[in-house]
Amino acid sequence: MGYLLGVDTGGTYTDAVIIDGAAKTVLGSAKSLTTRGDLAVGIGGAVDAALATAGVAPRDVALVSLSTTLATNALVEGQGGRVALIAIGFAARDLARGGLPEALGTDPLIIVTGGHGHAGAEAAPFDEAALQGELARIGTGVAGFAVVARFATRNPAHEIRARDIIRAATGLPVTCSHELSARLNGPKRALTAVLNARLIGRIANLVAACEGHLASAGIDVPLMVVRGDGALVSAEMAREHPIETILSGPAASIVGAHWLTGERDALVSDIGGTTTDVALLRDGLPMIDAEGARVGGHRTMVEAVAMRTTGLGGDSELHLEDGGPKGGLRLGPRRLMPLSLLAADHPDMVHDALDRALAADLPPDHGGRFVVPMGGDPGGLAPREAGLLARITGPMPVVKLLKSRMEAPALDQLVARGLVMLAGVTPTDAAHVLGTLAVWDSQAAEKGIEILRRKRAGNGVLRAGDAKTFATAIIDQLTEQTTLCLLEAAFSEDPDFSGENAADLARHSVTQTGLGGHRGIIDTRTRIGVPVIGLGASAPNYYRAVGVRLGCAMVLPEHAGVANAIGAVVGQITERASGTVTSQGAGRFTAHLGTGPTHFADRDSALAALEAALMRDAQTRASRAGAGHLSTSKTCDIREAEVEGSPVFIEATMTITAAGRPAIAQST
Length: 668
Known about the structure:
With about 675 residues, the chain is an alpha/beta fold. The protein contains 21 helices and 31 strands.
């Protein structure tokens, strides 16, 4: 009998679960800390423990599927490799839309002439010599390239030629925008390509780590990866298009939530170490965002679950604010390593630094903060950043590392690049102090919280009477921010509030007073009208209070902590291919194919050619992704205008979908 192995690698934990061949029973599960320096260690720990718990031999595993939040976390935290964007046929002002300048940051932008027009005809020759000169100038200062050409979805020839030149000259990964989306909007395609290029190294390392451990454990089956829409793809395809794995973990959690609870209509809230992901389950299926996934403030062109991802988790950074009589708190969006975890691995160093901070009359700046090296490629660092990184030879207190305030921005850059990680007080530490969690060093957590408690508010008042009171305030803040996440999701999905600002509605005074059941001249009551399914290992610690606050049924299923890993192996492979037919006038119809535009004398011939090409493309991609027993479906949106009482064809958009379960799991 075959068994299914699901693996989920998150920012804090890596989960593994074994399900029977019929996908009806969880036989065993396990958790291991995600080891960012060597992901194979964390993956191996979880996989081996799950197999042992289930009593399953490695040779009996028929399917392995991986979901992850690493790509999502990287975008939320602004991390990733340094890349160069090659823009063909665009002016700089054309690209200053859709958040592209913010996403590109200080990474190189190279503009060369070329590109095509709306109908796919060449607008200007591609300046290959200019591109080659710029490549020589950049040298080895980037980890990969993104390429976007004007109207590449109507004719990809210049993107393909640029890709070939870059690969020959550098040997580095290249992402072409037309490979990620068939839609127009060059700046947004450029943004999506940049983010994909930035993630290639991170996802490649994850896939290699997982495949390496599977091979050493004697599990000889292909590896699947969960895409952001909940579908499965081959590991090879995930390496090429890692951007499609953003929201992979959350998408798997939605699939797993339905499988675990049987609920058909619910809000699903999955709390991890870095993010909280909220989505709507309707009729047993995750809602898909037609506009493209939004993560870390970026709206991409990646089809994914309609998910609201917020930088709020059990390991969120704690910020002290001076508002109110005792100062306020705010959590996220950056993830820190919990003090309790760092102290479990480096007790002498951590406790010595904490004791020194507590002995001071006033807590020092960065007191209770530590820096931990994470490895990675330091290419492209400024001299100050490179010098600072060279001094970080192991985990150490931030107060010992920084020699002046001028070095603080350099440290932030190292964190953004993922080369180092900060450790400090998080909700996880507050849970240790309150006794609801006891896996690491509770004493270190209490010392860290005591240091923050002594940092007086702007009016000079202590923030709490003791460490436990302050820890309670931290958990209360987590409850409050989670409540806002769920309210925003509910307002955005409720059709009666369509077109209104969900964030404003969630924070409106009527909404907030209604949560407490305001009774006065006006009686108000605000509650979520569908069940909320709480997922994540820490959900039982935090979400009961959230359910009370929102007045809704809070469903906390068994195995909620490994829902992502469960969802990873109970989904199916789905591949879509989309294309367009345009018209330049009577008797002139163009099918925009992957090989370039092809012209026809009548509409039906153009549509038939497009359908045949898309069918081949979708079926080939689904088979390459590992699907067997394919089923296909077609949608076609034809736009027409009425001219003198007769319909005139303008454009048609067609999508072919090919779907099936993984062929390697057909016998289970």
